[in-house]
## 1
Amino acid sequence: MKKGYFFIINSKSKKARKIWNAVKEVLAAEGVPYRSFFTEDKGHAQKLAETVQSIHGEQAEAIIIVGGDGTIHEVINGLHKKDIPVGFLPCGSGNDVMRGLGKRKRLDRLIKSILNTRTSVRRIDVGCLRSAGKGRFHRRFVSVAGIGFDGEVTKLTNASWYKDWLQRFGLGSLSYTISTLRLLFSYQPGDVMVKVDGRTYEFTSVWLIAAGNLPYYGGGMKICPSALPYDGKLEICIVHNLSPVQVLFLFLTVFFGRHSNKKGVTMLTGTDLSIVSQTPLTVQADGEVIGSTPVDCSVLPSMLTIKM
């Protein structure tokens, strides 16, 4: 096989299968060499990416992900070299990676752009989460890592019946809003110690901490509005010392990125972040539950090559 495209498709997504059928027609019409792989279960996309990189790396023009942010998260955790470009055909409930990259093209245009060998590639940063505590983990992320309330929202959303149901109607992002409202008045914020680039901060009654490589998470919430994927830094948002009603009104401003200067919001910037809490807080990244605190978070500059 001469150099071609390797597609990793989320087989559990009806929308992903529909998009793949459209892509196959374009590939056949233009005579583009390719291979396709369908995920079988959670974690399989990561294994597929590892296989493509190790066995077919020299033959890969690019790896194209047909799926949502969760599939993207798995694939980038299966790639340990940055020389294989990655492209995205988004079809998830949130699609915050594409939203954050500012590449909300029509599907047909996006397909043609990715398959165009003259389309430029670009290297972007990725975030890295590590924990040596109970349930240790080491994961990379593209968009945002969230700790605390948003970790619990992610856990509830991913286990809910309404996420897939809403996604059938193109309303998948609403599932995060529903979960937020379900948890808002029962969640118990706690005290947290945060260290950013060697400087220590202590916060009481913390609702959430978000570390953003890109601005968006939760289906369009612009939680880290100034985050850029090529500046070698993470933007950090800490929400603390607010009542549930105050948090509710704050979330209304988050969708527009206008929360940064509000009461109970602290914004920081750094390359290395450590979080220790009195009680374990749920950690999510790219909309996938990873583990719990304590956790260290850092940025890996120019670690991922994308083609869009």
## 2
Amino acid sequence: MRLLLTGASGYLGGFIAARARAEGTALTVLGRKAPDSGGWLRFDLDAPPSALPAADALVHAAFSHVPGRYRGGEGDDADGFVRRNRDGSARLFDAAQAAGIGRVVFLSSRAVYGPRPPGTRLREDDALAPDTLYGRMKADTEADLHARATPGFTPSSLRITGVYGQAVPGTPHKWADLLSDFAAGRPIAPRIATEVHGADMAAGLWAVLTAPPGQVTGRAFNLSDLMLDRHELLSLYADLHGIPHAPPDRAPGPPPNEMACDSLAALGWQPGGLPRLRATLAALPPGG
């Protein structure tokens, strides 16, 4: 497969690039900086893209935001946030169609659903009601991409939850500060969230990329694995590394809504669950 990838230097993109290389894919990275190796084409969400090279598929993982923030990632520049992410994505999709690229997968978010009553299981055919600019931008970009579906063009989206893990051992990960604070005995605020390992996220993407077009054209797929409270996360981490501190209390109130992932499972996707979480934490050094 000849694959184009935006956002390869980002956290999610790192997992996707690692999977692509493991699959022996001919990978070309679209971004502002050339990678250490492999194909590269200059690309910026805030500028018209160059003509894209011939490829079998494009994965769009690039996202322009205030560092460290997704929801609320617009900061004090809402117009620029929309221009770069929604409008920049539309220009990229135009370029992909002009180049005759047959598949495009967009990395969306569970934020497209917006708030729902406690206990509601989120399904892909639910009406979308995002309550943040981030969620609205993702929903608008999904809708634009899916509306382009033709017999020769297969667009799909992945509605991804929180992602954990390291694409390459020794690289930064989302829990580094949390684990460091916990190991040092600093106070930890209770929190519960839905999570999936980055390698499982990349495996879900691969399932969509390689599925028959009739199974994925114009469709969004939920992608999530664990409902994870910091109490359970840090209890497990403490047990694995002999850390003497007590974990925080369990998060108060109802947990986030779970996403139903039956559609992705029907393509053969199976996440790693608690065994993968345990193995990931065991491989991290004490202190994160």
## 3
Amino acid sequence: MKQWRNTHIFLMIICFLVGLTEMVGQSQEKHRVRLKADYIKHMDAQSILQIKATARINKQTVNISGVELTVINEIDGEEIALGNLMTDHNGEGMYTVALNKVKADSLNLYTLAVNFKGTDTLRRASRSVEFRDASLVANLVTRDSVHYISAQLKDAATDSLLADQNVKVQVDRLFAPLVLSEEINMTDENGTILVSIPEGIPAVDGKLIIETVLEDSDNYGTVKATLDAPVGIPIVDESTYDERTLWGPRNKTPIFILLFTGLLVVGTWGVIIYLIRILFKIAKH
């Protein structure tokens, strides 16, 4: 009987220690962070590094907001810190890349790394992006009364023409771009494509905002070139955003509403002051 009791106590101690070990392990568990980084070059603007941080927590993918990330230029085993950024509520961040301040290796290859140092609950993480610098130039061409977009793609470092690259041509729209050609537009041996612009596309003042895009290239990332093409069907901008309307913003309140409200306030205070004066006269008498 005494031996059975001792065995029972020993088993309880073992269970307690195992449970305590699991609790400590759970309290020290860190979640793995996943970083995504995409290089995007705008020919008429700045190049950027689009970054997103997520983690798998409780079997759900969660955006990691409010964490500091460091962007580093890696070259020949050397790491050069370029700057820091904070992720927003969507776990996203954008870093402006100045290529004149970034060093490339002997093969004209740029390597940028995004580092996360980690926290008490999140593991450290890193993500690298490699790309070469490309140049994309687009022009509006008219042949036999038909309008075309001509674009040429080059390697910016070697000035060599880039063939067999898929370049999309699309019209910028509010919600989603309008792709002009459903076919795959591969650059020829001269690094060029030629895509016709369909007739009858409406645009404010007839100006179409055309985008030519080399998207998610393994060697060059995403490269965009934009131009205004006055070949659309002019439409009247019926937007009342800049007009004084009842449904407009506070600084666009109609004048008659302001005057009526002002007169109503002045009249109300006038009546109140008049009644107060009458009460004082009655009190004196």
## 4
Amino acid sequence: MWLWIQEQIIHSNTMINKIVYSIISLIIILILKQYTQKLIKTMGEGQERKYKHRKVLSGIYAVLYLLCLLIIWQKSSTSILTLLGFLSAGFTIAIRDVFVNLIGGLYILFAKPFKVGERIEVAGQIGDVIDVNLLHFTMLEVGNRIMQEQSTGRILHMPNMLVFSGPLANYETGFKYIWNEMTVKLDLTSDLEQAKVLFYEIIEKYSSDYIEEAKKQIETASKQYLICYNNLTPIIYTEIKDGAIWLSLRYLCEPRKVRVTENLIWEEILKCIQDKDNIKLL
């Protein structure tokens, strides 16, 4: 009986020592990580290269810590099972979300539905992806509080599991342009034909540069996706509604320049009709 008690005490002390060593190893790794990240900040390189250096070093330190754990626990398989059993009892519910996030992180890593720097929409949120890790991805919010999909300045932390819970729209993969539409309302007495000619010239001016590049992108993307556009030139749709003429100006635009192009187009429209008595805006 006494021998059994001594064995249990020795076993407990050994396990406690290993837990302490594991914690100390983690602290040392975190200190080294903080130190190297400060060194990276002092480097005279661009933000993108600094970001990549930080991600690579984070992966190296994670592998290094796993190696430390293997060395510390390699001769204590029973202790490892005991420890895992103890931890799993307390975190059974929480682990589910963590596990799904990990699977989502691996999906993002290998399937690449989006990459850092791309604009996406997921779970009703639009933003530019600024970081991706195994548990969550981070976006710089676009739209929501601000009109025309411009940055709000807020950072959104999104769990990776969201890539499985609904549609994910990528603004830049495959086809890097979007169709934007502007609505211009005219009085019923306006000269419709002249207005359409003037407005078409304006939207063509700000979209013609994208057409050839868009055709090349569609040709490349069609090898992987079923994408087919017969017409990439601007078009104006006409509708009579609420006692007025509604013109929908549809044209190709870069996702990040929607508001800029709309501003330029509106300024051009106002200039070209200011001396036209037969075209009246509402």
